[in-house]
Amino acid sequence: MIQNLNPISTLFIAGVITGCAQREKKALSDVDNNRRPNVLILLADDQRADALGCSGNSYIRTPNIDSLASNGIHFRNAYIMGGHHGAISAPSRAMLLSGKHLFHVYDTLAGVTTMPMQFGINGYETFGTGKWHNEKSAFESSFQKARNVFLGGMANHFQVPCRSLESEGKLSEPEMKGFSTDIFAGSAVDYIKEYASSSREKPFFCYVAFTVPHDPYSPRPDFIDSYPDQSLPLPGNYLPLHPFQFDDLMVRDENLLPWPRSPEMVRSVLSDYYAMVTHLDKAVGTIIETLKQNGLYDNTIIVYAADNGLAAGSHGLLGKQNLYEHSMKVPLIITGPGIPEGKSSGAFVYLYDIFPTLAEICRVPSPAGIDGKSLIKVITGESEGVRKSLFTAYRRTVRAVRTAEWKLIRYPERDYDQLFNLAKDPFELNNLAADDKYISIHNDMTELLKRNQAELEDPAPYTAARILPLEYDYTKLVRKPDQWQPEYTLKKYFQE
Fold this sequence. Notes:
Blueprint: E1 38-45, H1 63-70, E2 72-79, E3 82-83, H2 89-98, H3 102-105, H4 115-121, E4 125-132, H5 136-142, E5 145-151, E6 160-162, E7 175-177, H6 180-196, E8 204-213, H7 263-293, E9 300-306, H8 325-328, E10 329-330, E11 332-335, E12 343-350, H9 354-361, H10 376-380, E13 390-394, E14 398-402, E15 406-411, E16 416-421, H11 439-455, H12 487-493
């Protein structure tokens, strides 16, 4: 049975930011009103916010993405709101693409005015490639052009079922292709070249949704030795087992390693995970270089983000089906004409703020009923933020709220709280909820969480009708590989 476990306190990160050449820019207010910027959205899958050099991680190599941060604004406190089932990327992408919060969109985009749809209606040429984890019909309604689209949550990176948009506006039957990063980056590069050789009558909106570094933890072979096994430090909040039961500890992400999570296995995961991120970074560099070679870079707003974070050994977990910082916080970088260079912001933002922000920059009207807030005043320095707290949710089993200093995680089915002072305890290891010295703060955070639940129309109760135990026996957790694991991961992580 699980007792109080002492974490291994190895620090996960130590900071460096990679420098880069900077382009000449004007303020947003001075950008040519007769020449609306192009838009390029680069979306990673399951990338932790700290899995970037520009986030202070001195172990990972991401020079091209770091250059985007050096040329623009890096939001250090960007989050997703969470999800209502284990496949977090579906609601996350629905929120990003609709500008709506979780309880107004969930993962359903059918009948919703999406960001690419709104840009297309208002004079943009729209192109999409990569992962689409929502309805097929919503993709077909959103994009005018598309190549190598993957409909689904995950796939073997070497065997991705890809579709293209045909002349009648419908996606074709799938063809198996691989490696995922190369396919999607190559599609973006081809589109940019085709656009550059066209009349360029309309600005473009290009959406590139990668499927890495989502598992399977199977880098392209030439990237496998980028970070030799056992060469990386453990996360600062590494635990071999999560200290209590909540929700389903056997949700598919958690089956990727045995229990307890050994330091050696966690380091192996990080080695493969970082290798996939570095491959992704190289692909991002190729896309950016293509913009430059075709005279499009100086007039393109570029957004780099991820659909959710990942535990990867933190708190004894592997996946994103929890509300710790490592799973809800994501990378978010915006650069382009009028965006100040080398700026870092601690403002609390959600991914669904991207829609109204890009709409304002590009002079596209935002559709009625969106929940996101434009970040323009944060970008220009007129404001330090658009909200004072953040609320996150997972299924009906976990709720959380955070401020600049404090975070409360509530488990309704366990009637259990975690209270962390993030200013002193960023790894969320020291639970202060039962400490009498913090009763007042605990009460304030509880009221803040309840207010958020009411304002956001959260259907989950603060305390469930039936309370379940916190204790569990990890020896009864039995795992097996899913159908997407290639031979490399079967041998390395499943011993098959």
